[in-house]
Amino acid sequence: MIHKMGIVGYGGMAGWHHNLTKEIDGLEVVGAWDTDPQRLELAVERGLIAYDSLDALLADDQLCVVLIATPNDSHCEIATRAMHAGKHVVVEKPVTLNNADLQAMIAASEETGKLFTVHQNRRWDEDFLMVCEIIKAGQLGEVFGIESRVHGSRGIPGDWRQLKEQGGGMVLDWGVHMFDQIFQMFPGVKLKTVHAITTNVTNQLVDDGFRTELLLENGVRVLVEVGTSNFVSLPRWYVQGVNGTAVIEDFSKKGKMVIAVGENEKDIVPVITAAGLTKTMAPRRDDSIKEIPLPVVTADIKDFYQNVIATIEGKEESLIKLPEIARVMRLMEAVFESAAKNQVVEFE
């Protein structure tokens, strides 16, 4: 059976979806609607139907699924209309601008019985999955600290992502992924507190970066940071355990993992600095540490759409759980609250 899909908002991300679905058995993109005539011309060039309105797309009975890849402020209205028009819905992240809108979207799904899911694609990032495996394997001992970062130096893209009313800013653009990843690492573990700052280095309308400290109920402290004015990037992941440390430099997955071995050191050779010596910060002897390989993890983002099809056909449950999406949305709201008040916010 072929499930036919229409795309609302045929921009760059929608084009990525279109190309990906060509590799998915049982799913076919047949048309698109966009407010920009040039985007519709591009859709026609790629063999798609160009609908002249959203109503026309939603009225097309051949469409089973609608992908929404518009600016964030329009997701809620389009998704609820699509579900009431009898379509299953896939929404690009962030699902919407606030938890109140998300609850309206969930209610529409429950009323209509239609699948409503969110493209949380970075659950398939292999650098993230490597960290999950490192924690699971336990080679670092008890993990007590995680740092998750993405750094760039080009500011915010010059489109709607710079506009607050359309859901711009880095918390909604990247935080939605990074907070979701942390929750996925520690399923069932409550988040106790949130403390955040946001930055406005190159953009005064929306946050162009942020730094958030999270304290989990299990005692793990997590630093999540996004910067768009960083000409020297810090590591994508830095994971600390009582018995070792792992670092993953970037999306290429380069890095290393070092653990302690053997007896505790006795003869420490101090480091001599210009102002004196220190034993505390002296390096370990080579015979007391060991570098071990990072885990090899592979993932396939096609699993997302294959699960969408299987969920529609009643063969699987959706991989993206709506309570998880709501939790991330609440966390982003807590980040904005903490930054505005400059104080720690209790979460769960």
Question: What topology does this entry show?
Answer:
Blueprint (H helix, E strand, L loop, with lengths): L2 E6 L3 H10 L5 E7 L3 H9 L3 E2 L3 H5 L6 E4 L6 H10 L3 E5 L6 H14 L3 E4 L6 H12 L5 E9 L18 H16 L5 E9 L9 E8 L4 E7 L9 E5 L2 E5 L6 E6 L10 E3 L2 E3 L10 E4 L9 H11 L9 H20 L3 E2 L2
Parallel strand pairs: 1-2, 1-4, 2-3, 4-5, 5-6, 7-10
Antiparallel strand pairs: 7-11, 8-9, 8-17, 9-10, 11-12, 12-13, 13-16, 14-15
Q: Name the poorly predicted regions.
A: none
Helix-strand string: EHEHEHEHEHEHEHEEEEEEEEEHHE
**Terminal Cα span:** 44 Å
CATH fold annotation of the largest domain: Dihydrodipicolinate Reductase, domain 2
Query: Count of DSSP E strands?
Result: 17
Main beta sheet strand tally, sense and closure:
9 strands, mixed
The CATH superfamily title of the largest domain = Dihydrodipicolinate Reductase, domain 2
Gross geometry:
elongated
Count of DSSP H/I helices: 9
- What helical percentage do the residues reach? 25-40%
Structural class of the helix and strand makeup? alpha/beta
- Report the top-level CATH class of the largest domain: Alpha Beta
> Per CATH, which architecture of the largest domain?
2-Layer Sandwich
Give the rounded overall mean pLDDT.
Answer: 95
The number of distinct structural domains comes to: 2
Spatial order of strands in the largest sheet: 16-13-12-11-7-10-9-8-17
User: How much of the polypeptide forms β-strand, as a percent range?
Assistant: 25-35%
Radius of gyration: 23 Å
